[in-house]
Amino acid sequence: MKVHIDCFPCFLKQSIIALRLGTQDESVQERILKSILSEINIVDTSKPPAYATTFIHRKIRHLLGKDPFKNIKSEYNQIALKLYPELKNMIEESPDPLWTASRLAIAGNVIDFGIFTPHQNSGAGVTSVDIEGTIEKAIYNPLAVDDYILFRDDVAISDEILYLTDNAGEIVFDRLLIETLISLGKKVKAAVKGSPVINDSTMEDARESGLTEVCEVIDNSSDIVGTILEWTSPEFQEAFKNAQLVISKGQGNFETLIETGKKIFFLFQSKCDVVSKELGLSTGSMLLKKS
Amino acid sequence: MKVHIDCFPCFLKQSIIALRLGTQDESVQERILKSILSEINIVDTSKPPAYATTFIHRKIRHLLGKDPFKNIKSEYNQIALKLYPELKNMIEESPDPLWTASRLAIAGNVIDFGIFTPHQNSGAGVTSVDIEGTIEKAIYNPLAVDDYILFRDDVAISDEILYLTDNAGEIVFDRLLIETLISLGKKVKAAVKGSPVINDSTMEDARESGLTEVCEVIDNSSDIVGTILEWTSPEFQEAFKNAQLVISKGQGNFETLIETGKKIFFLFQSKCDVVSKELGLSTGSMLLKKS
Fold this sequence. Notes:
Radius of gyration of chain A: 18 Å
Oligomer: homodimer
Shape of chain A: globular
Number of helices of chain A: 12
CATH superfamily of the largest domain in chain A: Uncharacterised protein PF01937, DUF89, domain 3
Strand order of the largest sheet of chain A: 1-7-6-5-2-3-4
Strand content of chain A: 5-15%
Number of strands of chain A: 7
Largest sheet of chain A: 7 strands, mixed
Order of helices and strands of chain A: HHHHHHEHEHEHEHEHEHE
CATH topology of the largest domain in chain A: Rossmann fold
Distance between the termini of chain A: 14 Å
Helix content of chain A: 40-55%
Structural class of chain A: alpha/beta
Largest interface: A-B, 23 and 22 residues
CATH architecture of the largest domain in chain A: 3-Layer(aba) Sandwich
């Protein structure tokens, strides 16, 4: 998985979303966006797009002097927490709680406001996400890639599971799947980012979503989009190495971990044309895919 | 009308379309796209986007060593010429030929493969345009801005009309409107670009479409997107100054001529979010708008 030229306009679109969340000052938005052009110019196109996105968003935070996603992440956690009781009930009443919880975890991945095109008339510059519609779709429609049987069987024979979270808001859905795994007798360790990057979950989101009360949560000590192992802490690397099974959420983790050789189940929605094309799928496809 | 930050990703998308038409070599595509990043960095955002697009496409042609749109322009002229007899008939049989011909001229503006996102699975990297569907839409649906009554009345009192063409393919639709104006006793002079830029019509397209056999065709001596008067030839400037009425096709001409103070009727589809937002319209709106 490498950077395609189609990623270049997308890098700018993502940057614009971040800039509009970070400042109302159009001259600042323009100045920072122009400096992102130089950043794209030196992108290593042999690496997954997540590398480039990491550098771009680091620069945006540096030039804005703040994390532009801070408020909206908290807002999305609150929205998802309101859904929690209903979703918990849906899982507990279903004939196969693991199946339902994994589908919901994929639905949760759609709550990603760092990638999609902003609405033209939205003040925040962020796409409204139809959460309830997405949940219905994830439950009632077939997945584009569905390795659930393998997932169920591998979960059955694994005692220790490492769970890589992706975005804020989504982390409430992750909590539901993790609670389901724990109810099946599994020991789960969840990982979040070490510091803010786009709308990815950090320890603050783990606390806000209640995840820290459910299982051990570690941070990977990095501000990387996805998981670039050599840039994570020794503690995280150790947890990754020792896990019998890894559950990985989101496209960024898929891009950066697909070639590690580890037994990983990737739960995500393919959100960009480039990744979807490489997978032979249409953009927006939902996947539960074994590495 | 000035450049917004939303134009930046769009500049890159347009460049990618041009590059894919110009070469199959992905390393060349990437190298040229990276040099376009520097070009965008020095864009004068106080000017209409057409200025930036002019410089970008000049650079692309220079670095490719050719006009990437040459073949596809000719292809679109041929497609439109096949429709000519049917459209001619439609105009001649209609109760108000000027109305029908002006609507068709607007429909013709949709044939623009320099702006829209390429289809994912299209080898050429170019959006397929539903020409017949567009024609039906232009005839049967109301326009977002419809100054036809003013247009008809101004045409009635004007003897000499300057007609600014836009794209190849579309120029066949322009020929139909120009023939209608001539049948009403008007003297029409048509203008094309002096040399290739995106898919804009040049003298070659005027010949290929049969327009040179219908009226006098002049070129504006420039390779500019839209019409930036100070960069056109004295001959073109004279024709512009002397025309009692100007008919202007396409968004580029609209962006660059809307503030000239001349009596102009703009016939076009608003193809981008930025221009559409400034006009208070949704993207894809069709207009017959008096200056």
